[in-house]
Amino acid sequence: MIVNGMIEAVNASVALAGDRTIIVPGHGPVGDRAQLKEFGDMLVAVRDDVAKLKKQGKAAMDVVAAKPTAVYDAKWGQFVIDPAFFTSIVDGL
Question: How far is it, in rounded angstroms, from Cα 39 to Cα 45?
């Protein structure tokens, strides 16, 4: 899965970060360790939801239409990559 590399990178960064670490992402606002962990949790949840939909035999367009990112869209779905595109690359749909 494409998103697994992102999850691994976030987990490694969280492990290296301390409570006073300032995270400077490539896109988005400056954050802290807790925010990075929250982002990682979102990646895991979306990955798992996409995997469940695929396991049910859903076609790629049906997985995107199911909007597995919906609960996160207000916070993370308004930047460089929109929710539909993000969903399509989570598992290389």
Answer: 10
